[in-house]
Amino acid sequence: MVDLQRPALDRVFGALADPTRRALIERLAAEDGLSVSELAKPFAMSLPAVMKHLDVLEGAGLIARHKSGRTVSCRLVAEPMEDAMGWLARYARFWSESLDRLAAELEAKA
Predict the structure, then answer these.
(1) According to the model, what pLDDT value does residue 59 have?
(2) Interval 53-84: pLDDT, tens
(3) Which terminus of the chain, N or C, has fewer Cβ atoms within 10 Å?
């Protein structure tokens, strides 16, 4: 039976499917604790649009926000990616083994 009930994994992959959200994650990985306005600076979009992306990342558990006065800062929470990495690792083994068999077959014919 196939386990289709992995909503946390679905949210992580869904959040990471968008290039803007991946860029936000990369910025937080490089410099954690940036304010929302600092995060939004390099993007050619409105602050509300960036906030929507941050909502998706927070919903997937990939960021946490902290409000201090009027400033909201974000930090990366990488733990939810661990489950995604485990899921991907199974397929990395599959492709590695498949490519090893292909290489061996090509060497045998050469």
Answers:
(1) 97
(2) 999 999 999 999 999 999 999 999 999 999 89
(3) N
Residue 71, SS3 per DSSP: strand
- Extended beta strands in the chain, E state: 34-35, 63-68, 71-76
Under DSSP, is residue 24 helix (H, G, I), strand (E, B) or coil? helix
Contact present, 28 and 74 (Cβ < 8 Å) = yes
Phi then psi for 55, rounded to 5 degrees?
A: -60, -45
Q: SS3 of 64, please? A: strand
Class of residue 21 by CB neighbours under 10 A (exposed 0-12, middle 13-18, buried 19+):
buried
- Stretches where the chain sits below pLDDT 70 are 1-4
Collapse the DSSP code of 65 into the 3-class scheme (helix H, G, I; strand E, B; otherwise coil) and give the result. Answer: strand
Greatest alpha-carbon pair distance for the chain in Å reads: 70
74 secondary structure, DSSP code = E
* CA 83 – CA 89 distance, rounded (Å): 10
